[in-house]
């Protein structure tokens, strides 16, 4: 079993990628929809929430935990790794590694929520490797995705993508990190705007690939399974409705509500 | 003293109108920025939060409480009125009254957050008065406003307004309720799209007017004062920055953070 958590439902991008590259693994997902968003909270609150989320998942005896939340991956990885007895993979480190491999001109743009960008987590890790970085907060992308505005020919999507991405083109980035698990749903719209020569790094998918590599290396791949269960801390109905945008299937029967404050 | 609360900072539209029509009243505002948005949460969570918000304000011994949150005004007014010992005025009833007076052709459109629209609160009240109603959920308007996208010539604003409002024109509404306290900031963009013959009802301002009428009727108008204090449940800095979009002034010195979970 693999555990995945996020402050909300963006982490379903990682679940989707896990199902693609590790179809025989059972996955338990926790989305902290009752306390979303984490990005505006203090570091100590984020760590407290992250540890609760992880403790909830540890009940299911996971082989590893994928932190599909940009905020938690930015500020709470050390706390998680020091506390948990299983490998913990975060989206930030996974995406940074992939971007560094992908970039030829050493100019990398990072798209993220205002909180992720403000935390400087991508920027610090990339600058430490000697590349030039342009950070672009994209506060409208999450509401666009959560309201189903993802098509590249949607006029609102086109104007919003142009608004945020024109800077990445002037900067000359050859690689762009989609540093929020919602953004892969806008990948086609972003790709159309920036052109096919620019590489888009999907942080949610990269974390899933890191996890797959780790399980394979450790000889821990499952022989059969593939069940998915979902837990949330607010209304399961609202979650299942929006989850359809991410997973392109109905998961209503597989979603349960829990009281995360109890962990 | 008057108490005003909202799930975030949209209620500042009501504070602005109170300052205009009742300049001698002290106002204490609570914005639940740590738990915003309410609109996506379950009814029971919204009621729990609303009661905590009101309990916080009751400490200041207010003459009345203005519920400047469309979501709370839609689903928690009864709970608040049954619990509190002072008059409670909500944006929904205030706007409905004003819209019924304004409409000549009895066709009224309501713009609101998905939760407000889903609650059916405007619709029910209006249908009960025999008018035709078109309800339009506008989930992108709040993120637009909070990120400063309010100008009528902003291409993202134009596309988003056209996306939501074209139905109001086909419907033939002569009156449109701006059923969320963020929407008055888009009034100019919406007005440009629908034309000047369509009346726009500002729910935030109408609630302030109802409150003013009530105080006058009860002989409770203040002789002097006019101090404004602001409390929030997340970073005061972030709040003060965005508040500037609503109040067109700097309130940094007047904002304090509190722990709303303690109420």
What features would you describe in this structure?
Two copies of one chain form a homodimer. Chain A is an alpha/beta fold and 263 residues long. Chain A has two domains: 146 residues, Rossmann fold; 112 residues, Rossmann fold (3-Layer(aba) Sandwich), CATH 3.40.50.1860. Chain A contains twelve helices and ten strands. In chain A, the strands form two sheets. Chain A has a six-stranded parallel sheet, sandwiched between helices. A four-stranded parallel sheet of chain A has the order 6-5-7-8, sandwiched between helices. In chain A, strand 1, helix 1 and strand 2 form a beta-alpha-beta unit. In chain A, helix 5 crosses helix 7, helix 5 packs across helix 11 and helix 9 packs across helix 10. The mean pLDDT of chain A is 95.
């Amino acid at each position: 079993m693999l555990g995945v958590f996020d402050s909300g439902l963006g982490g379903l991008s990682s679940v989707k990628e896990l199902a693609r590259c590790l179809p025989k693994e059972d996955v338990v997902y926790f989305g902290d929809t009752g306390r979303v968003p984490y990005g505006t909270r203090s570091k100590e609150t984020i760590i407290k929430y992250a540890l609760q989320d992880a403790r909830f998942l540890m009940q299911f005896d996971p082989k590893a935990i994928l932190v599909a939340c940009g905020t938690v991956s930015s500020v709470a990885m050390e706390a998680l790794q020091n506390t948990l007895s299983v490998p913990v993979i975060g989206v930030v480190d996974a995406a940074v590694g992939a971007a560094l491999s992908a970039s030829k001109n050493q100019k990398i743009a990072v798209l993220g929520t205002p909180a992720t960008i403000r935390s400087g987590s991508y920027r610090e890790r990339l600058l430490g490797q000697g590349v030039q970085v342009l950070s672009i907060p994209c506060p409208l992308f999450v509401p666009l995705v959560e309201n189903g505005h993802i098509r590249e020919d949607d006029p609102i999507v086109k104007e919003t993508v142009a608004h945020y991405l024109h800077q990445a083109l002037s900067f000359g980035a050859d690689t762009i990190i989609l540093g929020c698990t919602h953004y892969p749903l806008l990948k086609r719209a972003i790709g159309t705007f920036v052109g096919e020569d620019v590489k888009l790094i999907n942080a949610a998918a990269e974390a899933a690939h890191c996890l797959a590599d780790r399980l394979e290396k450790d000889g821990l791949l499952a022989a059969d399974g593939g069940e998915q269960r979902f837990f949330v801390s607010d209304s399961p109905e609202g979650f299942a409705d929006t989850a359809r945008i991410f997973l392109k299937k109905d998961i209503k029967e597989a979603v349960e509500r829990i009281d995360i404050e109890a962990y």
